[in-house]
Amino acid sequence: MKRVGVAASKIAKDNLFLYNFYVVLISSLFSLFIFIVSGFVVTFALIIIGYVGKEIMLVKFERDWSDVLVICMISLTIITAIFNLLIISKNIRLNKLK
């Protein structure tokens, strides 16, 4: 989390507005990347569970997959947003850079 501030201060070069802008930008891009990768993994895991349940265990899971996927993505969104807000709150500065 501290590396976001270090990277933003190197890019901003003593400009407080740019520093805060880059903190928000870097943390948002990182959170988007984490959300996409985690969402892919969750979707892939649900596909594997559905395949195993249907082909090997002979149980049909096809009825409620959309509800499970929606709940998983909402949970992932909330966790990613909290993580992003935590990073931003640790790195935002209101006074001049030293």
Runs in which pLDDT lies below 50 for 5 or more consecutive residues are none
Order of helices and strands: HHH
State the helicity in percent bands: over 70%
Give the beta-strand count. 0
Counted by DSSP, the helix tally is: 3
Radius of gyration: 20 Å
Proportion of beta-strand residues = under 5%
Distance between the termini: 19 Å
Average of per-residue pLDDT values: 85
Taken together, the total number of domains comes to: 1
The assembly state of the depicted protein chains is single chain
Structural class: mainly alpha
The global form is rod-shaped
Largest sheet: none
Write a brief structural summary.
By secondary structure, this protein is mostly helical.
Q: Can you walk through the features of this model?
A:
This protein has about 100 residues and is mainly α. It has one domain. Helices cover about 80% and strands about 0% of the residues. The chain has 3 helices and no strands. α1 packs across α2. It is rod-shaped.
